[in-house]
Each structure stands twice: as C-alpha cells, then as structure tokens.
Design brief:
single chain, seven-stranded antiparallel sheet, two-stranded antiparallel sheet, about 375 residues, alpha+beta
C-alpha cells in the first residue's frame, strides 16, 4: 500500500518594491487591504500563509492566489514583488517599523536590528504522533543544509555581493545559539521550559532554528514540523519540487523507521550530530550546492549537489509510486544550472550589475506568475505588475 501524503502548508515572506529593485515597504497598508497578509516587524517585507492541504495541485493554487492579489494591488502603486531573501539593494542600516507601537517589534529592533529583515519560506508538514514527529525532526535537522543549498537566493546585501550564497542564513540570529537534537517530546518540553525560565527565549515561538516542532500550544500540543532554513523560493513550482523531496524523505523514514533516524543510524552522539548539522548549515549558506558537507551517517565528506542527486535516485521508486515525478522535475535542471544565488553571482562575475540582474529576475518572475495563473480556473485577466 502506498503511504499517504502529509498535510502541507507554507509561510511565505516577500519583499516589495519598484521594478528597478528598490525596496519599498508597504506591509501595513497591504495587510489592511488584502485578506491573508500579515506584517513583519520591519514593513519592507510581509507574509502570507497557505492552508494545510496534502494535494500538490491545490497547494499551487494556495501559493499563487494571494501573490496574484498582492501583485494586482502593488501594480496600482507602481510596485511589484522582489526576488531574493535580503535587502539586496539596501538599506540595512535602518529599521523601518511596521507598527511603531508594538512592544514585541521594539524588542526585535533593539535586540537584533536589521539582521532579521529577511524573506524566506517555511515549509510545514503535518505529523501528529510524537515519536515519528521527533524522528522526522532529527532527520530533517541533519539534512536541512540540503534544502538551503537548493533554495539559496540571497547573495547580495546593500548593493554588493557578500561572498555567500545565503547571506540571510548567515546573518539571521539563530536563537538560542545552541539547540540540541531532541531525543523525544519530553526532552523538547524540558529544554524549552528551561530556555523560557532562563530568558534565553522570550516566548515559545522564539526558537529560531533550522527545523522545529510546531503546533497550537507549544511545547505541549504539537501536530507538525516546520522547516525554517530555506531562502525565499520565488517560483511556486520549484518550491513544490523542494517540498516533494522533503516529503518523500520523511515518508521513507515513517515507513522504514530506525534506518533513517540519526539517533539510531549514526555513529555520532546526539551532541555531535547537532554540531555537525549546524556546521553543514553554515557551509551550505556559504557555497550552497557546491558546499562540502559531512554526512550524518558515517562522517564521509560529500558535496551538497551529489548528496541531493543520491537522494533523488533513492527516492525515485517511491516518487513514481506516488505520481510525483512531474512535481520533482524542476530539481534536475536546478542541480545542473545552479540555484538562484549561483546564477545571479555568475552574471555579476561576468560583468553585469547587481541591479541589472535583479531587474531581469523581477521581469521574469512577473511573467512566470502570469503564465502559472493562466492554469488556474477563474483567475482574473489583469496586469500583475
């Protein structure tokens, strides 16, 4: 019997601005005008969330429809959606509050400044049983670097190349600085309660790490895991391909158990695995698909690109069984030509300006969204801008 698809949902953060790549913050106005949008502490980016749905085709609709509505609203103001996960053309020297009266936003600005002014996509997958949930969290923690490598899209900050493929992940303040590999639900509850008591975390949401368990009443009532490491993936079909790889990996663990749980199938201790994962994440932020990583099973050195290709080959039979070959299709050309950050850096190294690269990407994403929108029944035929 084929395994059942997991419920999936996305938290998508976006920058807005002009067609020349200049960031213009409108999140407070957009959140008031459009259903489903929320502000971030800095008004230059905003967020929308898709409903939980196991079906990939419906998730394409949930990803596209809010963005199309946003594009139409922005076009009336001669603005658009911007690619990338950092303030590519600036200005990271100042914080632009979306809600000056919000005390939590004041805390964020005072504590972290513009290190948190980034755009990303968080992928949530529904798992309600605690033992499988924490096994999946452990596996994903140890392989999160692969998903950052696929999604990296933040090589620029303040109009310059940073030398990294994911400047976002390198600058974002991981909190607390050291997070263990959770052995089980009870371990997670004890640890989080101790972090709150010590002040290392301000509230139960203040766990900013590559992957975390999630639910309506954390840390006690949990029903999903959340992958937080990915840069913004601006192409919905590519985001669904990355999600399909993630889901296939977790379904394999849920079917086969201990063979894929790092707590059972690694030569490293849990403490060593946590450090290994964090180091791999940093390496993927620097070099993405070309990063030299350490495999959690046996410590062998392997390039991110090769590790991903091996996983795709191993998961191909299950993908065929579940009819996901087409959903996964965008990953093969990505592995061949590079992710967004790699392609942009190649253009800049070839003599093109950062602004020109971003402007071309803005136009392409406008056209790409319009093309995808044509496949959604009932989508208004108006300029997306």
């Amino acid at each position: 019997m084929s395994p059942s698809f997991l419920l999936k949902g996305f938290e998508v953060e976006l920058f807005t601005g002009r067609a020349d790549g200049t960031v213009v913050g409108v999140s407070a106005d957009a959140a008031r005008a459009l259903n489903g949008f929320a502000t971030e502490p800095d008004q230059r980016n905003l967020e929308y969330i898709t409903p939980p749905d196991a079906d990939y085709r419906r998730q394409l609709r949930w990803l596209l429809e809010p963005r199309l509505a946003l594009r139409r609203w922005l076009s009336e103001r001669e603005l658009t959606v911007l690619p990338g996960s950092t303030l590519s053309l600036g200005d990271s020297s100042r914080f632009v509050r979306s809600n000056p009266g919000n005390p939590y936003h004041a805390f964020i600005e005072a504590t972290y400044g513009t290190r948190v002014v980034t755009a990303s996509v968080h992928i949530n997958l529904g798992i309600t049983a605690m033992e499988p949930l924490f096994a999946c969290c452990r596996l994903l923690r140890c392989e999160a670097a692969l998903f950052l490598a696929l999604s990296a899209s933040s090589p620029f900050l303040d109009g310059r190349s940073t030398g990294a493929h994911s400047q976002r992940w390198l600058q974002f303040p991981l909190t607390p600085e050291q997070v263990p590999l959770f052995l089980d639900h009870a371990h997670y509850v004890r640890w989080l309660e101790s972090m709150l008591a010590s002040g290392a975390m301000r509230n139960e949401r203040h766990l900013w790490t590559s992957v975390r368990p999630n639910g309506e009443r954390r840390p006690y009532d949990l029903n999903r895991l959340e992958l937080r490491i990915c840069d913004l993936v601006a192409e919905p079909d590519l985001l669904l391909a990355i999600t399909a790889l993630l889901e296939l990996r977790l379904l394999t663990l849920l079917e086969q158990g201990d063979a894929h749980d790092p707590l059972r199938a690694s030569r490293f201790t849990p403490e060593e695995l946590a450090q290994l994962a964090d180091t791999n994440d940093s390496r993927a932020a620097a070099d993405s698909l070309d990063a030299q990583l350490v495999h959690w099973q046996d410590g062998r050195s392997i390039r991110a690109r090769e590790w991903i290709a091996q996983l795709l080959a191993q998961l191909a039979p299950l993908a065929a069984e579940l009819g996901l070959e087409g959903t996964l299709a965008p990953l093969e050309p990505l592995l061949q030509r590079g992710n967004a950050a790699m392609r942009w850096l190649q253009a800049v190294n070839g003599g093109e300006s950062i602004a020109s690269v971003l402007q071309r990407e803005i136009r392409w994403l406008d056209q790409r969204d319009a093309t995808l929108a044509m496949g959604l029944p009932g989508t208004p035929s108006v300029p997306l801008g």
